């Protein structure tokens, strides 16, 4: 991974790391470490489908986040240099569990998980039922439900997952897919109410994959305990998270880890004052 390890402003050095999940998958990644012994809070990042830590937009995002806090990021199973095969959200919470455990072993007292797209759904599931609970959670561009086909890009994704030729195309994109789900795992909207850590949901207005209905449904299901940012701009997941937004997310995460009750004071929601019912779209498939 190409990270500026010489910048005095960032004072960050990339260190390769490795972890093994509880089901035996070896994952590789990077620890973007500040000078001195690990302490305080770290950000543990879960990337999106087809991304990995050396992917250009993911690499830039990790660099932006590391300007504020140490970062731990692993390639999820079936992606990048990690082993295993992608289960597209089923067993990936074990990958994030392993990443949080690495951050704790490194010496960080507090951990905020930050997920993007598929990684956001994974972050929600891991926070609700993982073995290594985070102190704060950020989900950017998360689906509310698995079988979302309301946009053309998502219909393409399902073709990749469901058709034999699509699965071959996925390998060309750098993803090694496992077989189809035998049992459908709980969807993000079904588990979000179980998250007790401070939770930030981020939707980018120009997202071509998921409409704002997904983020609003998650906020409603969280019962008022989640903060929702509806952000201007284009893009999805990492691709839509420009440097300024990444900096705000990092600051929110650190504030939430330091004082969970004060997280909202440090970064206010762009939909403050609207009730969950008002944020739901009428007749939405995810509402």
Topology, pairings included?
Layout: E1 12-20, E2 26-34, E3 41-46, H1 56-66, E4 71-74, H2 92-106, E5 110-116, H3 118-129, E6 136-140, H4 152-162, H5 164-172, H6 188-191, E7 199-206, H7 212-221, E8 226-234, H8 243-258, H9 263-266, H10 276-279
Helix pairs in contact: 1-8, 2-3, 4-5
Structural account:
This protein is of the alpha/beta class and 287 residues long. The protein has one domain: Alpha/Beta hydrolase fold, catalytic domain (Rossmann fold, 3-Layer(aba) Sandwich), CATH 3.40.50.1820. 33% of the residues lie in helices and 20% in strands. The chain contains 10 helices and 8 strands. It has helices at 56-66, 92-106, 118-129, 152-162, 164-172, 188-191, 212-221, 243-258, 263-266, 276-279; strands at residues 12-20, 26-34, 41-46, 71-74, 110-116, 136-140, 199-206, 226-234. Strands 1-2-4-3-5-6-7-8 form an 8-stranded mixed sheet, sandwiched between helices. Helix 1 (56-66) crosses helix 8 and helix 4 (152-162) packs across helix 5 (164-172). The longest helix is centred in the last third of the chain and has 16 residues, at 243-258. Mean pLDDT is 85; it is low at 1-10 and 264-287.
